[in-house]
Amino acid sequence: MSSKKITIIEFAPCVDVLLGITQGAEEGYAGVDRGLVAIRSGSRLRPTLLSINAGGKASNVARVIDKLITDRDSVEVELIVFRADSPEGRYLAELQSAELSRVRLRSVMVDSTSRFCINVSDTDSRQPSRVEFNLSPRVIWQPNAIGAVLGMATEMATDLLLVAGNPPVIAPHCRMAVDLPAAIIKNVPNKPAISIDIEKGALADCIDADPQPDVIKINREEFASVHQQHWGRYQGILIVTDDEGCTVWGSGTGGPPTRVDRARGQEVHSTVGAGDATHAGFSIAHWVWDFDPVRAARYGMAVAASLVSSPAGARGVRKKDVDRFFSQLEAAAQRTQT
Do 7 and 156 meet the contact criterion of CB atoms below 8 Å apart? Predict the structure, then answer.
């Protein structure tokens, strides 16, 4: 059996810092009301450092895939990270290298900034009043970086190209490069399969591109960020996640969807990265193990369940837990069919 290659592109890598906070009059947040977290001006938050790791949507996908594939899988996975040649960029690369064993990291230097993202969460809070927010600066590229990246895309050889996360903004006007993902897809030779997780204008451009993505994995808000006229033209696999699971279309939104519920009963520590876990699980199950789209989405839900039930998030995904959640979902699906 010939080996498949998966290439994952990360436009906006970051150092992800996860902090835990509690509700309190002096050293915590004041309260939460219908999703709005109140913090007194001038108050001193005393967060607990929970973790520091390499972040970014594509990096999360690669990290989870690294935990799912085994030596028996005939697949080569490469994570291409466009990053700054700076002390911060090198620190990020060190974090990524330390977390990956089966996925190969390839750093591509572009004239850009580096970023640190702060995820703040009260891990004891529960839905519908969960306390969780994110401080996430944009990555800024200089204009010369675009040509270098598109030139590199013309030399890319892969079976599956996976693009996740918003494109960078371009100096000096800080305009988001919404046309960059579609341009990369167009420039890659030999027409590999394409799987994306992006939103708004970049997503609309990819839907209207030639070739279209084979798979789009997004959440409900990202689905709503694109006008229905674009979805009417899409002919590929669409997976839309929400708090209770996901909805799967096998050949565009014109056909009937299939509902896939999330795994039940697990403790939820944080939902940060759950969508990326779903994307990673679907990609391995569908493209490497040849699961059909619905069953692959079910496997993606099992991976997400493993992530949210671990205090370590994406770093705590364990294949044995994924397999256990997947068995539960498979059994539930069989009961529904009978």
Answer: yes
